[in-house]
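Narrative of accomplishments. A recurring question from our advisory board has been how the design workflow behaves on a single, concrete structure rather than in aggregate. To address it, we present the structure tokens for one chain from the evaluation set, followed by the sequence designed for it. No filtering or post-editing was applied between the two.
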């Protein structure tokens, strides 16, 4: 009798598990860690999808580059080994050099322009059609991911104050170019080493969005912040075409709607955070300056020329169409 009860209980548990199991167990890989705005927004996305699909879709999140860097995860999307990830528009320059336009310093002045550059220009539409067809990746939505600013161990009141500044930058072409053409000395360095390098004056400054500067506590070892606004970062919610095609139409709509809401939330986190953070840094004894951006942008002209030489007519189209959005 006891054995029968155990068998019955086991059977019921099995039935219960099967009743509540999701029809689709999907994976979302990301580079950012669990304390980031990005993670909060992706959590929002996963919860929204689960709720609106009535539990038919369950999304597991893999933060902190557990599945590899963004290049690796894009390949996993193409191969159908990963379902979702985040990626900046400019990051696609590793496949299509013309995508670098999205991160040319001072090219994109605000998020509204950034979004239109991706979704509404002929250049953007053609590029992401190509990405869809050749890489097997589709854009679900576009979010704002912060604007890069400069901290330093001296006040930056104008471009002249950048001269000779040993500036830590990530090993990315556009960031290296920013430092070089405004007169600083670009110093590529692993992100994990930056705090100590600033603390010991191995470098004089670094550049990152304000939420990153706060999260890494760079304000403890840098008492000057210049709002250079040199590169605006977007963040695309990306889905594997293979995954998306396997979902029925009603669940495709759930995913699309949830990604749009998540992108709005993602954007709000960064916009609200940036508003509050200037005052936060001031409260920590940081001197905040707002140097005139015009000389900075003018100094980058040779780099724009390099971009045009590399990318020919498609590069010219990209710059022309994006600049037209600002008029």
């Amino acid at each position: 009798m006891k054995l029968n009860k155990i068998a019955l209980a086991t059977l019921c548990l099995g039935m219960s598990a099967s009743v509540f199991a999701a029809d689709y167990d999907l994976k979302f890989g990301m580079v950012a860690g669990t304390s980031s705005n990005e993670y909060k927004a992706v959590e929002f996305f996963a919860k929204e999808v689960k709720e609106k699909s009535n539990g038919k879709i369950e999304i597991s999140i893999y933060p902190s580059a557990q599945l590899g860097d963004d290049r690796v995860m894009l390949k996993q999307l193409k191969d159908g080994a990963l379902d979702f990830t985040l990626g900046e528009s400019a990051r696609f320059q590793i496949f299509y050099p013309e995508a670098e336009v999205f991160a040319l310093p001072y090219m994109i002045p605000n998020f509204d322009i950034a979004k239109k550059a991706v979704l509404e220009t002929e250049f953007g539409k053609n590029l992401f059609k190509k990405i869809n067809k050749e890489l097997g990746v589709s854009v679900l939505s576009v979010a704002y991911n912060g604007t890069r600013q400069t901290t330093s161990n001296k006040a930056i009141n104008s471009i002249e104050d950048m001269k000779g500044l040993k500036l830590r930058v990530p090993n990315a072409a556009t960031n290296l170019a920013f430092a070089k053409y405004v007169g600083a000395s670009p110093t590529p360095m692993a992100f994990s080493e930056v705090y100590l390098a600033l603390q010991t004056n191995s470098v004089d400054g670094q550049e990152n969005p304000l939420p990153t500067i706060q999260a890494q506590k760079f304000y403890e070892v840098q008492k000057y912040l210049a709002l250079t606004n040199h590169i605006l970062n977007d963040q695309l919610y990306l889905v594997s075409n293979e995954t998306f095609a396997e979902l029925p139409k009603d669940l495709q709509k759930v995913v699309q709607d949830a990604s749009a809401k998540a992108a709005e939330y993602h954007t709000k986190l960064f916009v609200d955070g940036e508003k509050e953070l200037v005052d936060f840094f001031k409260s920590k004894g940081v001197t905040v300056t707002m140097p005139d951006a015009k000389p900075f942008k003018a100094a980058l002209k040779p780099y724009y020329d390099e971009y045009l030489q590399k990318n020919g007519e498609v590069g010219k189209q990209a710059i022309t169409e994006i600049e037209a959005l600002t008029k």
